[in-house]
Amino acid sequence: DTGVSQDPRHKITKRGQNVTFRCDPISEHNRLYWYRQTLGQGPEFLTYFQNEAQLEKSRLLSDRFSAERPKGSFSTLEIQRTEQGDSAMYLCASSLTRTGSENNSPLHFGNGTRLTVT
Amino acid sequence: ELKVEQNPLFLSMQEGKNYTIYCNYSTTSDRLYWYRQDPGKSLESLFVLLSNGAVKQEGRLMASLDTKARLSTLHITAAVHDLSATYFCAVEEGGGADGLTFGKGTHLIIQP
Hints:
Chain A has about 120 residues and is mainly beta. Chain A has strands at about 5, 10-15, 20-25, 30-35, 45-50, 55, 65-70, 75-80, 90-95, 110, 115. In chain A, the strands form 2 sheets. In chain A, strands 2, 4, 5, 6, 9, 10 and 11 form a 7-stranded mixed β-sheet that branches. A 4-stranded antiparallel β-sheet of chain A has the order 1-3-8-7, with no helix packed on it. In chain A, strand 7 (about 65-70) and strand 8 form a beta hairpin. Chain B has strands at about 5, 10-15, 20-25, 30-35, 45-50, 55-60, 60-65, 70-75, 85-90, 100, 105-110. Chain B starts with a strand and ends with a strand. The interface of A and B includes residues 41, 56, 59 and 109 of A.
């Protein structure tokens, strides 16, 4: 178990550029979540996948944000036409969740991708 | 809309003292989590509380859940410097369909 891996760790981009972040979850985990965290705040839920299905995406901050998990393994989060307000830490988390089970794992978080938009 | 409030948001205390962090939430919930975050690092899971009256302990930390009061507490006993971190509570509803809703965190500094 190597944990949740995110790449890159840091990204600096100019306003208007597109950026894409990658997340590799813990291999046996079926759920994958994306969160955003700004300084001094708790993580804010963006979207999640169960296997390859994106089951919740209404919390994505705008239509500039999109996420994919094409084969139910790794996921990507893309931000198009970045704005300075997008500067934040983007966290990925995964869990093993079975409906009705009391033994579901807590979310395991990666180290995040810190985005700076200049 | 689920709201999660932590109290206090900032706490400075001396080693050896006891203190409690409070987490209130606004709707019924399936489960409650406590996480720890060190500066520049990701979140580490501390406790998962699944039912009313649940109590879990790990070292100097003990967490409890009162679902009727919609309140969870994280109690620190005889604090040591290594416990300095930011502590978040997070509440899950809808079987995870809405993700976790986090509080703003309690920034804890423990001084020698």
